[in-house]
Amino acid sequence: PHPMLQLQLAPAAMLRRAAQRAPTIASIACPPAAGPARILRSCVSAAPFHPPAFLQLRTKQAFSGNWWGRGMCVEAAADEVRHAVTTFSENEEMMRESVRRFATEVLAPKVADMDRAEALDPAVLAACFDAGIMGIEAPEEYGGSGMGFTAACLAVEEIARVDPSVAVMVDIQNTLLITAFMRYGTPEQKTKYLTRMCTDTVASFCLSEAGSGSDAFALKTSAKLDEATGEWVLDGTKAWISNSAEAGLFVVFANADFTKSHRGITAFIIERSNPGLSVGKKEEKLGIRASSTCEVRLEGGRVTADAV
212: which DSSP letter? Predict the structure, then answer.
């Protein structure tokens, strides 16, 4: 619907004037002397004049009768314009509004009580699953919403406006655990665990230890293979583990070969019901008190090979 603009030169001032007349610069042709770098800089300088869209540029070799030899053509077709990351899709806007209502109507009345009790209300946990915000990025085939990372960020942001404690739980579930299973889990693990995490099971990410906080490679939790049974045996203590009081599933990082230093670190899936796992002392915090932060102890916790 916009006129094709053919510009023989590409100074920034000319592109700014063109951008004011049409939201999409459809074609910019320049002689070889202009160079692609100059064209790209000019286009980028023009882009702020027509937010929220910016130009998606691609280069190609083109011949022009106006100049002898071969020129470089940079195009941004109207149907190829990408929206800026600050512009949300219709589904993302719907997600944000839905979570905002949920936070205001369901969470807000319980925030003070949960903070005083230093614990999440089980009814709030169930409501989070029912609202579909515990598996935002998981595919629909596993019971998730099938949306992207931006949608997960919007949901966490809206919940954090009302209760940061619940936001911590939702954030860890979506951006740490579900993402890890989607990227690194086997098809069998995705079917078995993602379905639970989207419907009724809180998960916990167990990495930090008393001697390895920011220096995660220094962790001391060990994983030894029992060759007689083919099981891995986990021993060690994790510290400051969020969601651990509510979690039914834990992803535990342990070193399976200390001779390889950090390259021996492996992630293991372990159920709360495992007799070798126990949740220890809960930390007393100054804020975000309803979010559980506990020790997780592993004493001969056995998992099968398919838990890696």
Answer: B
